[in-house]
Amino acid sequence: MTPSVLHGVPCIRAAFSNWRTSDADVDLALRELAAALAPSTA
After folding, report:
1. What is the model's pTM?
2. Reduced to 3 states, what is the DSSP secondary structure of residue 3?
3. What pLDDT does 42 receive?
4. Which helix (H) or strand (E) holds 21?
5. Going by C-beta distance under 8 Å and a sequence separation of 6 or more, which residues neighbour residue 1?
């Protein structure tokens, strides 16, 4: 995952090109991204 800009809007570009990438790997990446973007409860 790398930072990018699409139509002037900041975004994250995910490139999954390894044949060994599984659905579980993608699910993990999405969960971790959601956790990183979640409002802090501290």
Report:
1. 0.66
2. strand
3. 66
4. none
5. 12, 13, 14, 15, 29, 33
How many residues can be counted in the chain? 42
Structure tokens at 5: 């800009």
The string of pLDDT tens digits covering residues 31-41 is 999 998 898 87
Count of CA atoms in the C-beta half-sphere (13 A) of 23: 0
Report the Cα 10 to chain-centroid distance in Å. 13
| Nearest-angstrom CA–CA distance, 10 and 14 | 13
Task: Fill in the amino acid letter for 34.
Answer: A
Using DSSP's 3-state secondary structure scheme, residue 33 falls into helix
Which tokens sit at 34?
């959601």
Residue 11: pLDDT over 90: yes
